[in-house]
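Trying the structure run again after the queue cleared.
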Amino acid sequence: MNQNEAVFRDAPVRTAVVRMAVPTVISSLVLVIYNMADTFFVGQTHDAMQVAAVSLTNPVFVMFMAIANLLGIGGSAVISILLGQQMHKEAKTASSFCCYASLVFGVLSALIILPLMDPLLSVLGSTQNTIQPAREYLFYIAVGAPFILFANTFGHVVRGEGAAKASMVGGMIGTVVNIVLDPVFILTLNMGTAGAAIATVLGNVCGCIYYVWYFMRRSSMLSIHPRHLRGDKHQMVQVVTIGIPAGVNSALMSIATVLLNNALVQYGDDPVAAMGIVTKAYLFIVFIHMGITNGIQPLLGYCFGAGLRRRFLDILKFSGILTVVCGTALSAVYIIFSRQIVALFIDDASVIAYGGPMLIATSIAGPILGLLFLSINSMQALGRPLPATMLSVCRQGLIFIPLLYILDAGFGLNGINFTQAVADYISIVLAIILLVQTLKAFKGKPESENSLHISQTASNL
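Done. Tokens:
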């Protein structure tokens, strides 16, 4: 048993959660800063149209994250379960599959987006004022798609073997490069949105280099060597199956953002710019929750694979309390200082006037939003992708989309502002119900009943 497995199995619950969650939270915050950097530095041009252009193209980047989450979170969950079952060869197969699948999806994304850029921008809600800066940003993001997908996929995968620090370092390298290059390209060289996109891609390239080095020099239980693709293909299927909830959640977030921007366009370009800033700012709260819950998912997966039922439940309880405490503190800050937070991104009175109420409305679900992600990740760790997928579909799809049009028709712009919070609260209630039902089934298993193969889990869904 190596040091990472010892943390999974033997460390006190609080110690294990902190060891896994803190680096993952830091990685998540780094990703938020990464995401905010483009909007912040583009905002320093004092051109609201360029800020709106970055916001309008954000769904494409989010769609990349959907693919990376599907492969990365799915891979992390499968790997942790396999390691709990001492199936090390199969874990290498899963990690190698994630590597090459991310590269293939990246190349395919570029080949689809580049020739269809103008029609895509029209669908995303670009207007005559925003289409040129949006086109410049999207071009470089599409070209860099393979690097973006690889780096973000392996930010998740390495946590499957307990290497949360490696995930954190990889994310920090990319973010630091992006933050250093953004002001150079955007402000000094006057490249605007194109400069922001180039800085983003170069940051991800550096992240890729680090992860390749990590797998070649540091990882003992995982691999990116193509020879491991010849292993049991069942692990590859399970990566996709278990990763679907995370992928669906991000994909629907992209679709929801497109619909949201199209609903806001009728009120002008300033509300679009304001919501883009609010969305980026609120990611700080969202990613704190996701950092905690993604961080402890390998712990939960290992406990399930090894049959450690009591440890699984103790980790779940402690993590739930942690998300509520963190979410409440951060949401209070956002609500009290809403206008000041929006003003950090742009010095435009109209955009700030729209953004303040938007941030307040969005943040009211922040205190307990983590319970939704905890429920989704717990079900993934238990090898139960179906209920996890249902929750992901509800939050950004089945609940959010109808609410967007209903609240827009009934309350106008103010209704749009509250759509996400209302959708979140409804989804949280459903999540708690499904989690309780799932845990009842797991609690019924005797402690000695372990080493279930992952295929047996999937066959019972």
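The CA atoms of residues 326 and 367 lie 7 Å apart. Worth checking whether this holds up in the mutant runs.
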